[in-house]
Amino acid sequence: RVLVNIGHPEGEDDIFVAPQIARTIKPHQIGGVRFLFDNIIESTKRFKSSSGFGCILSHSMGLGKTLQVICFCDIFLRHTPSKTVLCVMPINTLQNWVSEFNMWLPKYSDNPEHIRPRQFDVFILNDQHKTLSARAKVILKWAEEGGVLLIGYELFRLLALKLMSTRKRRSNKAGNCERSGTEMNRRLMESVHQALVKPGPDLVICDE
């Protein structure tokens, strides 16, 4: 077994890497997971009262940063009160992220002691979600139920900035009656903005 929170405060439980990952993970990757834990969680008891920090995992290409982040997501959602993680990435890597999540942290397992299943859902926003309502449906379900949301940089930028442009157009049309459909879209965008940006998720991961 691979212990993550080495030297943790007295009274806190040991936290271990999922067994299926522990059998494969390399020493430098264990160090990366511990680095993420120390900088983002630090202490499970003090987590609620801490404002939190961020960090940069700057391993070179091919050294398994995706595995380390997936392993940490499991720890983060399992051992803290947090429920939402947003992963923003180049769109051409999104499908690889989906495959890696399903490989390392499957949703189901016939032998939990050998393969510990994940306790969260992985939500995906890709080219199949073309309309605002389709995108909002995925985002709001993720925000309500919790889990990991995978999204490309361009779509995230589009959704994050769209509310601002909607507000500008609305102010330019002061005095005009808005159609109910436009008002509905505005409310939808406000809900999406709350989920993605302000206050946003509990953890944001940016894959460069």
Shape: globular
Got a strand count? 4
Instruction: Specify the helix fraction band.
Output: 40-55%
Q: Which residue ranges are poorly predicted, with pLDDT under 50 across at least 5 consecutive positions?
A: none
**Secondary structural class:** alpha/beta
Helix/strand order: HHHEHEHEHHE
The average pLDDT score comes to 90
The biggest sheet amounts to:
4 strands, parallel
Number of helices: 7
- As laid out across the biggest beta sheet, the strand order is 2-3-1-4
Assess the beta-strand content as a share of residues: 5-15%
Radius of gyration: 19 Å
Tell me what you see in this structure.
The protein has 208 residues and is α/β, with parallel strands linked by helices. The chain has a 4-stranded parallel sheet, with helices on both faces. Helices cover 46% and strands 9% of the residues. It has helices at residues 19-22, 27-41, 65-79, 94-104, 132-145, 153-172, 180-196; strands at 84-89, 122-124, 147-152, 203-206. The chain has 2 domains: 1-82, no CATH class; 83-208, no CATH class. Helix 3 (65-79) crosses helix 4 and helix 5 (132-145) crosses helix 7 (180-196).
